[in-house]
Structure formats: structure tokens, C-alpha cells
Automatic annotation (TrEMBL):
Gene3D superfamilies from the UniProt entry: 3.30.70.360, Zn peptidases (3.40.630.10)
Protein name: Amidohydrolase
Species of provenance: Rhizobium quercicola
Protein's UniProt keywords contain Amino-acid biosynthesis: no
Top-level lineage group: Bacteria
Keyword Phosphoprotein in annotation: no
Length: 384
């Protein structure tokens, strides 16, 4: 065990402090500041701030040349009210760390403590505290930031806690592990009319009534087959909340989901053809755009091999249970730099699910997650 009892007490306190002060995607200024204060005591060789927004990267360098290993966690919380009696419950109404990103940050903080005591002999380790994972915008913004070029990794690793798996058990697999997804926001414009003379307007009502089932019918293939596609209607608004106006506008939101990015391209094309044809038939002006764009997350064999070896060396049970999963993760963007892999660390079989209002990260996972990553570093770069 590389962490002392004092370390564990301080890391849990750090996690609880982050939990009390959640910030949403793109707004993580104070969270980043808390991370910087914690990192400063570890004396990394370099700290880069403002990456892709509020991202923070700490660099620990060896004396010999070698590869750069990146370990990534997330800064952001969710716009969900927390239901909890815990002393560290959220102090921000309507916001909560209900996905465990506070715990992931604590894991990287623990990893930093290990590196402060035993630097890599060769190469570099980058601890990446990434903004805006929940919207799918953060990883893309970090990679596009000119400052990222100086710390571009050869191998990238991440983890996510996962309720439903036994506490401390790890799920790990090669290939796709998280689906591609994106939000499709559709606007249909016609012409309002008096409710007594709807024939004088152009209503989007028929278009909406057809699109809602037809969009979902674009789904196909049983998950996790390669041709899997899924469309989930998430929001719809028709006209104004008034009895005297026949509607002239509608908004429909849908989430598109596929196993791979290639499958997403096909699903988008089919969805766009459908909404264009429907709008034309009903004489409506159509506009649409995509939000919350997540690439699929694919674990590379080389990166998975390092994680599997670390798990074996640490005596941690692992298998491929539950993988791939339909949920999305923007860590897949880091595959553009080189081999990458994410593992899933069990939060308990009966633990509240991610994004539930009563979810809270299990503190016992802090040491286990950091220990896995430290073993990878020792194997690839050797620790002094």
C-alpha cells in the first residue's frame, strides 16, 4: 500500500470538499482552483491550467527519455438535485456530483501523491483533470488547445466507477466499450393562426405526431451488434401555452446512439433524410443541429494489456462483465493521440446508479483506482 492512513484521510476530505461544491460543465473554475491547490503540495515538474476551458494538467517527468502516459479524470458535476443526508452533500441547489467525478479526481490526486514520492525513471506522466465531460465538449476542447501539444501522450488511460459491479471489481475489455451518441435538436417553423381558423396557418402538429414514432423506428440491431442504432425522444414542444393560438412552431429533441462512429454517420444520414422529407410534406421550414456529441470509446489492445497486467499484479479481480455499455463517454477522443483504454471500477451491486439523486462515490475506491494506475506507470516507465 503506497498511501498512508493520513493520506487516505486527507484524500477523502478532498473528495468530500469537491462533492460539496459541484460545478457544471464549462463552469468548473473553483473546482480547478481546488485541484491546483492540492497539486501544488505534490511539487509536479509542471502544471498547465486553462486547458480546453478550466482543465488542469500536472506533469511528473523522469530523468531519461521515454513515452508520455496520460491519466484522465473529469472536473464537472450534473444539473441534478442531490438527495442525501451525508455531511458532505452538495451546497449548490440543483447541482450534484452524482456521477463520481469527485471520486475520480481524488484517485488522480492519490496517484499524484505516489508520483511525488517515486518519480518515473523515464518518460513523463500527465495527470489530466478534464472539463466538460458530461456535455461531450471537454475532451475535444482539451485536444484542440495549443498548450496540449506539449503534453501529447503516447498512451492514455482512464477509469469510471460503475454501480452494479461488485465493489472493487474491474470490468475491462478490448474494442468498443462506450457508444457514440449525440443530441439532435429539430426546429419546425410554420405559421400561427387563430384557434378558430387553423386552416389559415401552417401547423407543425402533423409533422411532430409522425416524427416522434418514426425517429424511434430508425433504431435497429440488437445491442451490442455492429449495426446497433437507437433513437430516444427526450423533449418536444408544440406551439405556445395558449388556447387561442393554433401552433406555428415545434421543437423536437432526440438522442442518437450507435456502437461506433461509423454507425453514427449512417444513423445521422437516415434521421436527416426523414426530418427533411417530413418538413417538406407539411410545408414547414426546417432547421436542426447536433449537441452533446460523443465519439465511441474504443479500448486499444496495447493499452488494455498494460491495465490487465497491472490488475493481475495487484491481485484485483477483473473480467469483461457488462461491456460494452450503451452509455457514452468523451474519453474516446484521446484515441486520436495513440492507444487508450478505460476500465470500469465496481461501486457495488446495489449501489445507487450513476446520475441518480441519491448516488455518492464510495471512498474505498480511491486507493484501489490509484494503485492500479501506479502499477501501470511502474511497469511502463519504472518508478524510482
Amino acid at each position: 500500500m503506497f498511501l498512508t492512513e493520513r493520506d487516505l484521510v486527507e484524500l477523502v476530505a478532498f473528495r468530500h470538499d469537491l462533492h460539496r461544491h459541484p460545478e457544471l460543465s464549462g463552469e468548473e473554475r473553483e473546482t480547478a482552483a481546488r485541484v491546483q491547490v492540492h497539486l501544488a503540495a505534490l511539487k509536479p515538474d509542471r502544471v498547465i491550467t486553462g486547458l480546453g476551458g478550466h482543465g488542469v494538467a500536472a506533469v511528473f517527468s523522469g530523468v531519461e527519455t521515454g513515452p508520455t502516459l496520460l491519466f484522465r479524470c473529469e472536473l464537472d458535476a450534473l444539473p441534478i438535485p442531490e438527495i442525501s443526508d451525508a455531511p458532505h452533500r452538495s451546497d449548490s441547489p440543483g447541482k450534484g456530483h452524482l456521477c463520481g467525478h469527485d471520486g475520480h479526481m481524488a484517485i488522480l490526486a492519490a496517484l499524484g501523491r505516489g508520483l511525488a514520492r517515486r518519480r518515473p525513471v523515464r518518460g513523463r506522466v500527465v495527470l489530466m483533470f478534464q472539463p466538460a465531460e458530461e456535455t461531450g465538449a471537454g475532451a475535444a476542447a482539451v485536444l484542440a488547445d495549443p498548450a496540449f501539444a506539449d503534453i501529447r501522450p503516447d498512451l492514455s488511460f482512464s477509469l469510471h466507477n460503475l454501480p452494479g459491479l461488485p465493489l472493487g471489481h474491474v470490468a475491462l475489455a478490448t474494442g468498443p466499450v462506450n457508444c457514440a451518441s449525440r443530441g439532435l435538436r429539430i426546429r419546425l417553423d410554420g405559421k400561427t393562426a387563430h384557434a378558430s381558423m387553423p386552416e389559415t396557418g401552417i401547423s407543425p402538429m402533423q409533422a411532430v405526431s409522425r416524427l416522434m414514432p418514426q425517429l424511434t423506428e430508425l433504431g435497429r440491431g440488437a445491442f451490442p451488434s455492429a449495426d446497433f442504432a437507437m433513437v430516444t425522444l427526450t423533449h418536444a414542444v408544440l406551439g405556445e401555452p395558449a388556447f387561442g393560438i393554433a401552433p406555428g412552431r415545434a421543437d423536437v429533441w432526440a438522442t442518437l446512439r450507435t456502437l461506433t462512429d461509423a454507425g453514427m454517420s449512417d444513423l445521422c444520414a437516415r434521421a436527416e433524410a426523414l426530418i427533411s422529407e417530413t418538413a417538406a410534406q407539411e410545408r414547414l421550414t426546417l432547421s436542426y443541429h447536433y449537441e452533446d456529441i460523443f465519439h465511441h470509446c474504443e479500448n486499444a489492445p496495447e493499452a488494455v494489456a498494460h491495465l490487465r497486467q497491472a490488475l493481475t499484479d495487484e491481485g484485483i479481480d477483473h473480467d469483461e462483465a457488462g461491456l460494452p455499455m450503451r452509455a457514452s463517454e468523451d474519453f474516446g477522443r484521446f484515441a486520436a493521440c495513440g492507444p487508450s483504454a478505460m476500465l470500469f471500477l465496481g461501486s457495488g451491486e446495489t449501489h445507487p446508479a450513476l446520475h441518480n439523486p441519491d448516488y455518492d462515490f464510495p471512498d474505498v475506491l480511491i486507493e484501489r483506482g490509484a494503485r492500479i494506475f501506479l502499477r501501470v506507470i511502474d511497469t511502463v516507465l519504472e518508478l524510482s
